[in-house]
Amino acid sequence: MPSPPTKNLETFDNPEPGRDYVIRIRVPEFTCLCPKTGQPDFAELTIEYIPEAKCVELKSLKLYVWSFRDEGGFHEAMTNRILGDLVAATAPRFMRLTADFNVRGGIYTKVIAEHRAPGWQAPPPVQLP
After folding, report:
1. What residues are designated binding site for substrate?
2. pLDDT digits over 30-83, tens only?
3. pTM of the model
4. Which stretches of the chain are DSSP H helices?
5. How far apart are CA 114 and CA 112, in angstroms?
6. How many CB atoms neighbour CB 41 within 10 A?
7. CB-side exposure of 52: number of CA atoms within 13 Å?
8. In sequence order, what are the residues at sequence separation of 6 or more whose Cβ sits closer than 8 angstroms to the Cβ of residue 113?
9. Helix, strand, or coil here: 36?
10. 7 beta partners
11. Which residues form the catalytic set?
């Protein structure tokens, strides 16, 4: 029997909490409904984060993303809601969610939302010769 969609995001302990490292997750099949027309909206989500104590478990993320399939919402609201849920579950040092929605009526929409933990600052970029 297949797993049902759920809003429950599971986590696991960060295996390297003393190091800043980036986890990048690509979700190419996000689907929700347009709140005006009820037609499906499709997007590719990219989640980039620097974990603190917890990392998001990928199967639970898949089921969480799936739970939006029959839910209506504006692109901006969906993006910020998903970021808020991920931040609440993982409390990362930094997280960015990019939602790149497919064309609708000749218009593409990309929404980028970020979270930074209080006091956390990005390290300076490394310049190699």
Report:
1. 56-58, 75-76
2. 999 999 999 999 999 999 999 999 999 999 999 999 999 999 999 999 999 999
3. 0.93
4. 58-66, 75-90
5. 7
6. 22
7. 16
8. 79, 80, 83, 96, 97
9. coil
10. none
11. 34, 41
